[in-house]
Design brief:
single chain; mainly beta; four-stranded antiparallel beta sheet; 30 strands
Length: about 350
């Protein structure tokens, strides 16, 4: 290298060093989660714009989005609509069983689980459950579908092969988001009781009850299955806690989050737990070790984006919401709540 080249190289190193020091001094960090895409969806049949759970199926790479009277199925990569399940009243969540080519949608107002064909998206059967059928999941260990019912405080346990309810199990409280541990145990929040219940999927019995205090009104849950940690988010007070899934003991402090939390995720590939809130924020917690955690980012989304799912391959987060307007006050409703405008539902995709 000639002398002029050495001088130029040294000057470049000096500039880079100064830029690095300036970045460190100003507190700059590597870019975190940010908005990648906004995907608008068509209006739901029959009007209205109720929306609840999203679900990403890693096997088929499909994104399922509830919309009250419809359930959209999107390609998880192109984000184009592949099909729509219609003929629903007020749907909440979906569980898929690829081996049977069937999907199961909880329809709260219809008090049933609608079974549909994963290829044609046509409803093939309706299984009577209970009013306010809400969260739903498929447990591949027991090969059963669990449909959680809010107002009746119960869970309907379904055999997806025969499409029959095997048992309706009382829970003693109002269930919310649930997770399966991959070993035959199901965990669920009881929002009104401030508890977590553990259900043995094989015996179909509640085997443990654990309080979530100092958190309260737990509505959202995710799990690190490898390290047996439950990430639980509640509304009163608005906070996220970590629980040992074997003992029910809390690990670490409660972490403050935004209002109206409704979903949690845990990405084993990044060791990141996230919870989405209705005030328009996603709070992301890093698992440094099974007993140590810290908040790494609070992502600003949009008001109402309280339900979420994620893609374990690309590590993208998906939330959805709509545009809202407050109707005029009436004698019957002097203080009306803001309502979603029909035809404004959209999915927001965040990545790093």
């Amino acid at each position: 290298m000639t002398t002029p080249m050495r001088r130029c190289f040294a000057a470049c190193l000096a500039v880079c060093g100064c830029l690095l020091l300036a970045a460190l001094a100003s507190g700059q960090q590597a870019p975190g989660y940010h908005l990648l895409h906004k995907v608008s969806l068509p209006a739901a049949p029959g009007g209205g714009e109720y929306f609840d759970y999203l679900y990403f199926d890693p096997g088929s790479r499909r994104l399922f989005v509830s919309q009250g009277t419809a359930f959209h199925v999107l390609d998880g990569d192109s984000l184009k609509i592949l099909g729509t399940v219609t003929g629903l009243k007020r749907d909440h969540g979906v569980a898929v069983v690829p081996a049977l080519n069937r999907g199961f949608i909880s329809d709260g107002d219809a008090a049933e689980v609608a079974v549909f064909d994963l290829k044609t998206f046509q409803i093939t059967r309706r299984i009577p459950t209970a009013k306010d059928s809400d969260g739903i999941l498929y447990d591949p260990v027991s090969k059963r579908v669990f449909c959680f019912e809010g107002d009746p405080n119960s869970v309907s346990i379904i055999d997806p092969a025969s499409e029959k309810v095997l048992k309706t199990l009382p829970l003693g409280g109002s269930p919310e988001q649930a997770v399966a541990d991959g070993k035959g145990m199901i965990y669920d929040n009881l929002a009104d009781k401030g508890e977590v219940v553990a259900i043995n999927a094989a015996t179909m019995r509640v085997v443990s009850r654990w309080p979530v205090a100092p958190a309260g009104e737990p509505t959202a849950m995710a799990m690190d299955r490898a390290h047996r940690r439950l990430f639980i988010a509640g509304r009163k007070p608005a906070s996220m806690i970590v629980m040992n899934a074997d003992t029910g003991k809390l690990v670490g402090p409660a972490y403050p989050i935004g209002a109206r939390v409704d979903s949690c995720t845990f990405d084993a590939g990044t060791a990141l737990a996230a919870c989405s809130t209705g005030d328009g924020t996603i709070h992301i917690l890093h698992e440094d070790s099974p007993n140590r955690f810290h908040i790494v980012q609070t992502v600003k989304t949009e008001a109402g984006a309280k339900t979420m799912t994620f893609d374990p391959e690309t590590h993208r987060l998906f939330v959805d919401t709509a545009d809202f307007a407050t109707p005029a006050a009436t004698a019957a409703q002097p203080h009306p709540r803001a309502a979603a405008k029909p035809g404004t539902l959209h999915v927001l995709v965040y990545g790093r």
